[in-house]
């Protein structure tokens, strides 16, 4: 025989003993009841681990008006979703005032037990439905977020593969960016955003001729003119969008080839005029390029990559960030030893 579902918990706030007894008699066979004789006691119960599913309030309690208790419940993120029903036993209730304070329902006197039970059950069912809908929205939002992240990863891999079919470092660039961003003091949301934005850093290489991307000999001056256009092309592809991730992705695509000494491209920014996001991804991008095989050389080790980047600290790269990179080498080596994400 299946176990019975636990009874919903109701909190009855009432200082008058006879009215409390009337409420108890009407509801005790259907719900688990908690009792509070004052407003402060009711608020304390509402914050308890066994929070009530619904609260019944009178017009007035010894220490505060019922509407004041209701307003405080609705102002608190921990209790704002608990439905509140005002119940009149003998006193007058200001329906408009109660509803304005956030009440879900108001029952005028005299107390009618059957009607009370129906109205309570209706509010509990409505609260369950709202909770269910909120959960569906949360799950759908989570699914959309995951789809968006997967799309970003795959676009990043496509751009990476187009630029360098011999090595797929898109995921490594994102993971290294995350480590550097945390070390540089970015908050977790900003660090996660930047790690994803880094995946699209070279999307602009789609606009660079293959004859230049795959060239095995040194690039000519004309070749470099075209190659140096890819940050601008990437920024145009990503476009302008108010979402923080897309804003960061555009910023990264545009600035990750700027150099600390001002001799980078496309804008010739120098020092801290280069956005921190661009400075971080510049190091992650170079690191991944060094450890990736090329048609003209073999892949190098993480330690060699760090050493080469350190040699250019203060010219190409932010000196503080290169120090963070050196300190992170053991974590980076462990990261690279893990299987790539699917």
TrEMBL record:
Superkingdom in the source lineage: Bacteria
Record-linked Pfam families: HD_5, Response_reg
Residue ranges of domain HD-GYP in the record: 144-341
GO biological process, one term: phosphorelay signal transduction system
TM helices/strands, residue ranges: none
InterPro entries membership: CheY-like_superfamily, Cyclic_di-GMP/3'3'-cGAMP_PDE, HD/PDEase_dom, HD_GYP_dom, Sig_transdc_resp-reg_receiver
Domain Response regulatory: 9-124
UniProt-recorded Gene Ontology molecular function terms: phosphoric diester hydrolase activity
Annotated CDD domains: HDc
Protein name: Two-component system response regulator
Organism of this sequence: Solimonas fluminis
